[in-house]
Automatic annotation (TrEMBL):
The gene is Mall. This is MALL protein. Keywords: Membrane, Transmembrane, Transmembrane helix. It is a multi-pass membrane protein. Residues 21-153 form the MARVEL domain. It comes from the Eukaryota. GO terms for cellular component: membrane. The chain crosses the membrane at residues 27-51, 57-80, 92-112, 132-152. The keyword Lyase does not apply. GO terms for molecular function: structural constituent of myelin sheath. GO terms for biological process: myelination.
Length: 153
């Protein structure tokens, strides 16, 4: 008879807690996601928003994602997960959904960048919008990497 004990539970990799979060893929992507998302938020806020509907969505997605990712990072750092497999599912679903939302925000920000190219407000808004577009696509890529790398652990 096969025994179901500590040896069966040890085959699953443990979820990181504390500083090990920053050394373990995919959890190490959380901090860069937060930092790049914060740059998106700051850069869009620094422009004179000419398309409030488009850039409002970008601001909403970047700010909400930053806050939820920060809460998720704190949860991992403090060990709230209790090494439960449900946290892996939650993490993967959150990062997958956020990647989709961020892709829509990045496309809208790119559209706002194109529209600001010939704006009379000067090249500064175009440069800020270009940088925001770059960081939006970079953040999207980080969320996609995080969502898919959960499966390869």
């Amino acid at each position: 008879m096969a025994s179901v004990g500590p040896s069966a539970a040890s085959t699953q990799p443990a979820l990181p807690s504390g500083p090990a979060v920053f050394k373990t893929i995919p959890y190490a992507f959380i901090l860069p996601e937060i930092l790049c998302g914060t740059w998106v938020w700051i850069l869009v806020a620094a422009t004179s928003v000419s398309l409030p509907l488009l850039q409002g969505w970008v601001m909403y997605v970047s700010l909400t994602s930053c806050l939820i990712s920060l809460l998720l990072l704190l949860s991992y750092l403090l060990g709230f997960h209790g090494n439960s497999e449900n946290w892996k599912v939650l993490d993967s679903l959150y990062h997958g959904a956020t990647a989709i939302l961020y892709m829509s925000a990045a496309v809208l920000q790119a559209n706002a960048t194109i529209n600001s190219e010939f704006n009379p407000n000067g090249p500064l808004n175009y440069q800020l919008n270009s940088a925001a577009s770059f960081f939006a696509f970079l953040t999207t890529f980080l969320y996609i990497l995080h969502a898919f790398s959960i499966y390869y652990q």
